[in-house]
Each structure stands twice: as structure tokens, then as C-alpha cells.
Design brief:
Number of domains: 1
Distance between the termini: 51 Å
Strand order of the largest sheet: 1-2-3
CATH topology: Rossmann fold
CATH superfamily: P-loop containing nucleotide triphosphate hydrolases
Largest sheet: 3 strands, antiparallel
Length: about 160
């Protein structure tokens, strides 16, 4: 197997592992993940079916799919010494995933994000998470800081006259 094929296989394995860890709906241990190297599109093989981002269903599952994939690419790249940016911006990872209806999924996703952030070692990646809810790390995480920026007195809204959600 060529090195490039090994790298793709590692990304696919990390993607599946992260999806299982967060409890991605419909993904089980027996599933297989294949990445098409012509377009980098990951496909989940589930029994006799295959599905991808476009088949994930709701906007929340699509967002979760993309966040899991980004984490997998960063983790695999770091492990294998591949070039990867040292900043990962994750905007609205829990979009359309209600913390009220599925709090364990939300906590599991943040556990994975914080796990990757805590295992960076010398190859530290700065994570910039933009979300409507704050899920703090369960364990102390070096360099962790949070900012509330939605219209509080010391952090006014970017559009001063707008008062909305």
C-alpha cells in the first residue's frame, strides 16, 4: 500500500472512531468508512447501503458529520506528520442539535473536541469554537478560555442596534 493510501485509510479510521465516540445516529461498529480520493468525500457503508453527507438527513446531522470529519483529518494529519493548519475554526457545531433534547450527543461531541485539543503535545492546534451553548471541558484543559459575546455589557453586539436571537 502506498503512503498516500495509508494516510487516507487512517483518516477514514479516525472518522469512524470519532463518529462512534460521539454517538453519531445510525453509525455502528460494523460499518465501514471509505474516502473517495478523487473528491475526498467520505462514504459510510452500512450493511448493503451507503450514505454520505448529502444523505445524512437534517442540518444538525450534516453539521455533526462535517465536524467529525474535520476532527478526523486534523488528528490523522498530526499523528502522521502531514501538514495541517494549527488553527481549527468550528462554527456552530451543535447547530440544530438541541442540548435539551440530546444533551449526551452534545457533551460527547465536545468531549471529542477537547480530547483532540488535549493530546496536541508539541503540535498544538488552537481551536476556535463558535456556538450558542458552552460545554466546558470535564477536565482542566491548558489554555482553555471562553468569551460570551452576545450583547453583554463588556462585549456588546457587533451590530449595536440589533437585538435578536
Amino acid at each position: 500500500m502506498r503512503l498516500a493510501d495509508e494516510n487516507v485509510a487512517v483518516i477514514a479510521a479516525r472518522f469512524k472512531s470519532i463518529m462512534l465516540s460521539v454517538g453519531f445516529p445510525g453509525v455502528v461498529d460494523a460499518d465501514e468508512v471509505v474516502i473517495d480520493t478523487r473528491n475526498w468525500r467520505p462514504v459510510i457503508l452500512h450493511g448493503g447501503q451507503e450514505w454520505s453527507f448529502w444523505d445524512a438527513g437534517s442540518g444538525g446531522k450534516k453539521t455533526l458529520f462535517n465536524v467529525c470529519y474535520a476532527l478526523a483529518v486534523h488528528e490523522a494529519a498530526r499523528e502522521r506528520g502531514m501538514p495541517v493548519p494549527n488553527v481549527l475554526v468550528i462554527d456552530s457545531p451543535t447547530k440544530n442539535i438541541s442540548d435539551d433534547e440530546n444533551p449526551e450527543l452534545v457533551r460527547a461531541l465536545y468531549r471529542e473536541i477537547y480530547r483532540l485539543a488535549s493530546t496536541a503535545g508539541n503540535d498544538a492546534t488552537q481551536f476556535l469554537l463558535i456556538d450558542s451553548d458552552l460545554v466546558e471541558p470535564e477536565n482542566q484543559l491548558a489554555g482553555f478560555a471562553h468569551r460570551r459575546l452576545a450583547g453583554v455589557p463588556d462585549a456588546p453586539s457587533l451590530i449595536p442596534y440589533y437585538a435578536g436571537p
